[in-house]
Amino acid sequence: MNTCFRIAFVTLFLIGGPAGVSYAQQAADTTAAAGSEGGLVLWNIIGKAGGFQWPILGILAIGLFLILAKVYELFQDRWAGAALEEAHIPEMGTQEIVDLVQDQQQSMLAEMHATLLNVYRTTQDAGTLHEEVANFVQSQRERFDTFKRRVDFLADTAGAVGLLGTVWGMFTLFYGGNISDKQAILGGMGVALISTLLGLIASITLNLISTEVYSFFDSRIDQIEDEGDELRFRLLELSPHKNGAAAEGSVPDGSGDGQASPAAPSPAEASAAGAPDAGVPASTASATATAAPPTPQRLELVGIPKEGVVGTELSAVQLRAAAEDGTPVPDVPVQVRVGADDGTLNGSHAEVTLRTEEDGTVQFDWALPEAAGRCTAEAQLPGAEASAARTLSVQARPAAPHHYRTQGNNQGAAGGQELPNPLLVALADEYKNPVPDHTVRFEVVSGGGTFGDGAQTQEVTTDEEGQAAVPFAVGAEPGLNTVEASIGSETVQFQAMTLGQ
């Protein structure tokens, strides 16, 4: 209800603004206001817009009608879905959930629950429901975006009509050439200013109220997404892949009517359909019956590199589902997810569910994050034992050096003495990750100074912090010493002064 109060406050404030102007006008002109009420004065002022007040007020009325209709729709939807929000789905069985959804009024939450239950009935696999939740939320946001674009168009149009009134008022003022006529000046300026004021008020009103409505919708759709994930996780716990039994009860379609799952065939029906009779010897039955596919017992890593460069994509990472004897298991779901700091899968997803091919393999692309370090992904067979889960690990190493900084420049020491601080170069890649194990070559260009080992060139490898440091002793003669540090094709100079004795 806080959102409703905020919308009402903004509306009254903006509508009350022109009224405040009218009362100020009334106080300034007591003679004209003596026989008029505040509302009449306001209407007289609006009437000076030269006819442009009608399209502006009409646009404002249409926009407010659309907004109020959307607000009513959102509050009605929230009221209709209240029972589902209050239900303790994590404690319910499949049939209880089905019965609950069947009895609900039409709402976004009930529609999403019905969709998830129908997909669950079709696939018998709750691991595939993550994308259904994401798709439903995306479709609802697109529907609201259509409404938002209409209101934005009306707000822009109101401002444009006000601007048109401004142009028209100025045109009528200067067109006749009678700018010395006081009444003509007042009339033209009145049309220009009042139409502009009305256009701005209508535009700001529509924009502010629609923004509040969007805030309420965004909060509502996030809540619905959380409820969908709660149902998805519960169905995952009840999945037949996990407990080896068919899902309980029937699942409603989008209209709310449930449809019973087909019952298991009786022995007679099975015999008529070609199934082996109970009296047939086991050897004959095994020869005529179709062998059941093996049950996956483990996931195997087929193709995954040990490391990759930050910000790049590892293509065609492969896993394989296999039975206990190593036989590949086709057409079973494999769920892979990464953490918030471990990159994305197949484009921009944190979680994907894939089905194995004939050879039992699945493959996906893994985009590594921009931060260097160890990245992990969790892969599992939904409903299988915990031993079937695997953790994939890849080291994201820094990219090539892109930035560098220096320390120890512009120091001084007595002839032949070492500088107080070493000369240091720190390397980082384009994502600001330190670049270790990179060679930096230091060379004395002038001044006769030497490095720690007495040589005038020295190569240093950067450490884990991306830093390469070398002690430097200035030359014996007073003057300037120059050292160049080479990082590939890039060079950076250090200067040090040999001080007099």
Can you offer a commentary on this structure?
It is a single chain. Helices cover 44% and strands 23% of the residues. The protein is α+β, with helices and mostly antiparallel strands and 501 residues long. It has 3 domains: 2-238; 298-397, Immunoglobulin-like (Sandwich), CATH 2.60.40; 403-499, Immunoglobulins (Immunoglobulin-like, Sandwich). A 5-stranded mixed β-sheet has the order 4-11-10-6-8, with no helix packed on it. Strands 13-21-20-15-17 form a 5-stranded mixed β-sheet, with no helix packed on it. The longest helix is centred in the middle third of the chain and has 57 residues, at 182-238. It is flat, with a radius of gyration of 37 Å. Mean pLDDT is 77; it is low at 1-38 and 241-291.
